[in-house]
Each structure stands twice: as structure tokens, then as C-alpha cells.
Amino acid sequence: DTAVSQTPKYLVTQMGNDKSIKCEQNLGHDTMYWYKQDSKKFLKIMFSYNNKELIINETVPNRFSPKSPDKAHLNLHINSLELGDSAVYFCASSHDGVTEAFFGQGTRLTVV
Amino acid sequence: SQQGEEDPQALSIQEGENATMNCSYKTSINNLQWYRQNSGRGLVHLILIRSNEREKHSGRLRVTLDTSKKSSSLLITASRAADTASYFCATGANSKLTFGKGITLSVRP
Question: Do B92 and A99 touch (CB under 8 A)?
């Protein structure tokens, strides 16, 4: 069983479109995150949720809206996609937000 | 904001040699962790060292932490071609993990 799974793995879309990425963890963790990894491999935290509540929003544009229907799921919806949104997006989870994190396989988003 | 800064940015060694990677950070931490990322994959946790620990071992990995210098090092002994990957340090503090820019390690067979 995959611990943290996110879908889709690849996403190619045109500028201006709206898209969603889904993430699920079966580890029973309380904390889930979204990270963005750019072309230089720099990994930047976007959001952190603890037990369905948003606890960290790292100055991400309002076009990005996370949603956590329950503590096992954290989805990311992106409105009005821009070229600069092209990156690999990683979902991750951990027990308490600061200990070992488990990562999904990543979603490579390409905006054309 | 960027927390961890690894150096070197890239490292190329021969199989069997040891690889040493360094990480510096800026603020107080609960712990420091190292992760590996193979090409096209997610990050995999390698080892965690708490702020009150100075050294930790796990298999071929040895991590040190110097909180007075705000720095850590990761030593991989007897490297293998399969160790070729990107390595990231991450600091755990204030309910989040903050990652450095990563080090690309190439191990030549």
C-alpha cells in the first residue's frame, strides 16, 4: 500500500485553466503539506494542515486553494493557471509537522 | 524563507569513497533531517537528529549536528552507484519542515 498517494502524476494544461491535484495518506498522520519544487530543485512549503485545519500558508497566491475534507486528504486546487506555476508539486504527511515526513511521488504540472 | 543551505551544491565521487555533505541553517530548530530524492521521485527520509543530540548513525549514514554553529553534516561511507541522488537537509521548527536547496551526488561505478 502506498503511504502517500497523489494524482495525477503528470498534468499538462493551458494558461488560464483551473486544475486540481488530489492527495491521500493512509498513515494516520495529523499533518499534511503541499510543497512546490522548481526547476532548480528548490523545495518550498506552500501549505500545512493539521487535522483538517490550515496552520501554515507561505504567501501563496490566492489562486491556490487547499482543501482538507478529512485529515487523510489534502487536495490542491489552482485557478487561472500561469506559466510560472509549472513545477513539481509534492504532497507529504507527518505525525506532528516537524518529524519524519512521507512524500508522495509528485505531480509534474506543465502550463503551456 | 530559506532555512537550510547545503554545500557543496554538487559532488562527484568514485564508488567506495565517502561522501560528506554540509548544511547550515539560521534559526532555532527542534530537529534536523536529511532526505534523499532519486530522479523523478518523491523525497525519502534518511535520518533525523534532535537539537539535543550531537551525532547519530544509521547503517552507512552518520549525521552530526552543531547547534552553536547552526550546522550539520551527512557522511555516507563506502558509497555505491545507487547512492546517486539529490540530498536535502530539512529543519523542523514552528510546526513545519523547511528544506534546503539540495546537493546532487553522483557516484561513479
Answer: yes
Please give the single-letter amino acid code of residue B80: R
Which residue in B has a C-alpha nearest to residue A54's C-alpha? B95
Q: Which residues of B touch A35 (CB under 8 A)?
A: 99
Tell me whether residues A98 and B99 touch, CB distance under 8 A: no
Q: Using CB atoms within 10 Å of the CB of residue A59, give its burial: 0 to 12 exposed, 13 to 18 middle, 19+ buried.
A: exposed
| % of chain A exceeding 90 in pLDDT | 85
Q: Is the pLDDT of residue B53 over 60?
A: yes
Exposed/middle/buried for residue A100 (C-beta within 10 Å: 0-12, 13-18, 19+): buried
B10 close to B74: Cβ distance less than 8 angstroms: no
Cβ-defined contact of A41 to B98 (cutoff 8 Å) = no
Would you call A100 and B37 a contact, using CB atoms and an 8 Å cutoff? no
Is some CB atom of chain B closer than 8 A to the CB atom of A90? yes
Residue type for position A44:
K
A73-95 mean pLDDT: 97
Full 3-state SS string of B25-70 = CCCCCCEEEEEEECCCCCEEEEEEEECCCCEEEECCEEEEEECCCC
Is residue B52 very low, low, confident or very high in pLDDT (cuts 50, 70, 90)? very high
Cβ–Cβ under 8 Å, residues A110 and A13: yes
